[in-house]
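Dissemination and training. As part of the outreach component of the grant, students in the summer workshop were shown how a complex can be specified as a set of sequence lines and then modelled as a single object. The example used during the hands-on session is reproduced here so that future cohorts can follow it. Participants entered these lines:
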Amino acid sequence: MEYIFVLPIIVVGILLVFGSLLLSRLLAPHNPGPVKNDIYECGEKTIGSAWIQFNVGFYLFGLIFLVFDVEAAFLFPWATVIRETGLMGLAEVIAFVVILLIGLGYAWRKGVLEWV
Amino acid sequence: MSVSSVSQDIASHLGSAPEISAAYFVAGLLGTVTFLTVMALILIYAERKVAAHFQCRLGPMRVGWHGLLQSVADALKLILKEDIVPYSADKFLHALAPVFAVVAMLLSLIAIPTSSRLALSDSNIGVLYISAVSGLGVLGILLGGWSSNNKWSLLGAMRAGAQIISYELSATLSVLVVIMLSGSLKLSAIIHSQEAGWWIWRAPGVGLLAFLLFIVSSTAEINRTPFDLAEGESELTAGFHTEYSGMRFAFFFLAEYLNLFVVSALGATLFLGGWMPFHIGNFSGFNAAMDLIPEFIWFMGKTAFLIFLSMWFRWTFPRLRVDQLMKLEWKVLMPIGFINLLLAAMMTLFGFYFFATT
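and obtained this result:
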């Protein structure tokens, strides 16, 4: 019952954006031109495409993030029932997190966290 | 259906678990959209006025009394602006990006309880739900930046992507502290657990540290100064929305300001007791006096305070560099977050916080 609004609100969001775009198309001027619809590069002529190979650093951060985000997903249920699982649960979670932190330490040591 | 029967219908549904009925449904959706529009207009006006007064200016004064209608005029202007899409952009993804930003914001907005009787989607995994759907917002930014085929946009979007996913970790770590102490993921249950006092002071030290972590990382997550590297006017033109104009830009703007509201409301709910009035343990006289102020006012007051804090940051701290930004998260905030989580776990297990029995 609590999720009854989830799907409708997605539809409302989509309608809101495309409805306003339609309204804007009806009200606003529309004169496209080769110079106006060029990619903005501070007034200079556009050189090449932006769809190129990119700094691998972002990908490495993505990988580390993935590990810790999944870890956070495991911590959510544990945090909710921490009073029932007690010290034993805490010890297990510490073991789990420490293993991941060793991985983070390795990445740190290898210089992944340094921005180049 | 007449107006009075609709209002009766809404009133009868506000009580306990809402049942499905067409009127309740439509009222909920219309209410959300109205709230969203009004809140966006107020927030943009407030941002300009606060910024102006920090700089000893007057800010908008011409449109309406003290410029009150300035945001309305801005919205009208944006509708009448020409919609320019670059020829070499990916047209479909370019149009889809603002939709992602708006939908992610709307989905997290409906989960916030604004008073004990008004919460559209108060699910039993509320906190997890909000952190899940707010993660969709980064897709909008990445799509918008990549599909524009513009170097500034691409740089801004990649930076924003790295920044948002990184700071999501320490935000989650700080939220986990409150989940432990209150023992629930349901937002209304978290608020009820703060009846004897707000978590920011009831768990000595740990609550305050978690709150500070949350404020810093949520400011970074919504790309506000001092973490606005995604837009960085002085280096990236306008960052990921360089190629967006007119209404498309307006929706990115709207999502940004409403996200400010959502994270402030979430911070108020988790750490400052949401709509719960300020209570101290069993001091019933004091508590009864505090109960006289309506819940909705408490909620909006706390949220407004956090929003003001964020606007204050904007004119106090200079922008960070990218390497400093990543260093701050992975080498400072993350370790602090883990240590804080461990301390909070010990405190919860040994009942070492104020009014542990109540």
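The longest helix of chain A spans residues 82-109. Students were then asked to discuss how this feature might be tested experimentally.
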